[in-house]
Write a structure and sequence with these properties.
- This protein is mainly alpha-helical and 488 residues long.
- The protein contains 20 helices and no strands.
- Helix 7 packs antiparallel against helix 8, helix 14 packs antiparallel against helix 18 and helix 14 runs antiparallel to helix 20.
- The chain is globular, with a radius of gyration of 22 Å.
- The two termini are 15 Å apart.
Length: 488
């Protein structure tokens, strides 16, 4: 080990430095969820500016969500090979650059292309954040650290709609991308100084064929989930995607079982905690994004709120998550992860059931306190569950474990939108063709019926997640060794 590497790792073990590392990762990580939530708010402005159809403009947020996920497992493996700091800071720098390109786009197709590149960069940041934090903190503080880290996700998701509304009213849509530039430059500069450099592992090889199969599997799965309802779930294009998903998934498993250095060590899933906690994370985001996707339509179509007021009401959920997540993480360090993860999923299910009781005569307060319950459930669940996942793997697999967690989050988002949208559209077909402001009393009642069933399905998914959280267990004994051994 070089003297520079030794001093850097020794520095990372100092109590004051680990909190600085956490803050540096949080500053960079806030931009991904912020960008994901803010662009949807200004999409009408983008559509009007380029004089294009909404079906074309919809690819701007869609392609971002797709490209975030398609290489996220590869990035996690690269983190284990070449260092989490390198992957994280490279993604952060690329995200900042592509934000400039997005903001300067001169056509809708140029914006879509740069948005795809921005998603690839965001995936690099998201894939190793958990690994950096887990490596910096001792096991007895891991839950607290991951709970505080959850604040950056909650702030990004919560601030996005409100900030997007303000920008849409007072500035050009281009500023939703330009706002990333000063944050990104600051985060790269600070992270370069604070985040310790991992030691590059000798003799490591990248599983190219496994990476290609994983890319094809995730891309086809997410594209099928995202566009299946528009194209038709049994349309020829959808069937091709579904067949590609199944074939590439089977091929990926076949490759990984035979590779000398697999991209994804499948033996990790023989660990009950790791396997079921990841399933719980997936189900949590499916349920959460039923709320994120559906509720703005209710606020706009039924209550007639403008984009700024919708953003303010929607902030109730991430604000509740922001408050609860750090407390939940700290408590999980003392009592274990299972009871908190289980109660969090039950609380999320309760919030969704309460949202299903909304009526045409409800007001902002009626929506906000229900959103707060669902958000508190997500905060209560997330930190302990993430701690269970990251504490159940050997230190050499922290990067891929972090990548899998990030993949669960993004796949869950896409599936949540797909499932809730499919339920809504099938129970209320009028929503396919009607626009905001064009609903009469009969259409609103039909919409509310579809909305109720979509929320109920989301609550059922959260209930299944509560059961998988119980199966996961997550005993306090499941800890991970520090990356750097204690100083002699």
């Amino acid at each position: 080990m070089s003297s520079t590497g030794s001093s850097t790792q020794a520095k990372a073990r100092r109590p004051d430095t680990k909190w600085a590392i956490l803050a540096a990762v949080m500053l960079g990580s806030i931009m991904g969820p912020l960008d994901g939530s803010i662009v949807n708010t200004v999409l009408p402005s983008i559509t009007e500016h380029f004089r294009t159809d909404i079906s074309v403009a919809q690819w701007v947020p869609t392609v971002y969500l797709l490209t975030i996920s398609c290489l996220i497992l590869l990035y996690g493996r690269l983190g284990d090979m070449i260092g989490y700091r390198t992957v994280f800071l490279s993604g952060l720098a690329a995200f900042t650059l592509t934000s400039v390109l997005c903001g300067a786009s001169q056509s809708i197709w140029m914006l879509t292309a740069f948005r795809a590149l921005q998603g690839l960069a965001a995936g690099m940041m998201m894939s190793v954040g958990y690994a950096i934090i887990t490596a910096a903190f001792p096991p007895q503080e891991r839950g607290k650290a991951l709970g505080i880290y959850a604040i950056s996700i909650a702030v990004g998701l919560g601030l996005g709609p409100t900030l997007g509304g303000l920008i849409a009213q007072h500035l050009s849509w281009r500023y939703v991308f330009f706002i990333n530039v000063p944050i990104g430059i600051t985060a790269v500069s600070w992270g370069y100084r604070i985040i310790p450099q991992s030691i590059r592992k000798a003799g490591q090889r990248l599983d190219i064929w496994g990476a290609a199969a994983a890319f094809l599997f995730l891309t086809s799965l997410l594209l099928y989930a995202n566009r299946g309802d528009d194209w038709g779930w049994t349309a020829p294009a959808s069937i091709v995607l579904l067949a590609t998903t199944l074939a590439s998934g089977a091929t990926f498993i076949w490759i990984e079982k035979r590779a000398a250095q697999p991209m994804l060590n499948l033996s990790l899933f023989s660990n009950r905690v790791f396997a079921f906690a990841n399933i719980s994370a997936l189900l949590n985001f499916v349920a959460t994004y039923a709320v994120v996707f559906l509720t703005p339509f209710y606020l706009s179509i039924v209550l007639g709120y403008d984009v700024l007021k919708i953003g303010l009401v929607m902030a109730a959920s991430p604000v509740a998550t922001l408050v609860v997540a750090p407390l939940s993480g700290a408590v999980s360090d003392r009592i274990g992860t299972r009871p908190l993860a289980f109660c969090g999923m039950c609380l999320s299910a309760a919030g969704l059931l309460l949202l299903s009781r909304l009526e045409a005569g409800s007001d902002a307060a009626d929506v906000a306190w229900r959103l707060a319950i669902a958000g508190a459930g997500a905060g209560l669940f997330g930190s302990p569950n993430n701690s269970a996942v990251m504490g159940s793997v050997p230190v050499v697999h922290l990067g891929i474990a972090s990548g899998i967690l990030a993949a669960m989050r993004n796949v869950g988002m896409v599936l949540g939108i797909a499932v809730s949208g499919a339920v809504l559209y099938n129970c209320a077909p009028v929503t396919h063709s009607m626009r905001t402001g064009a609903f009469g009393e009969a259409e609103i009642q039909e919409f509310l019926c579809g909305l109720r069933w979509a929320y109920i399905v989301g609550a059922a998914i959260a209930g299944v997640g509560a059961l998988t959280s119980l199966v996961a267990g997550g005993r306090r004994e499941h800890v991970v060794r520090r990356v750097a051994p204690p100083a002699a």
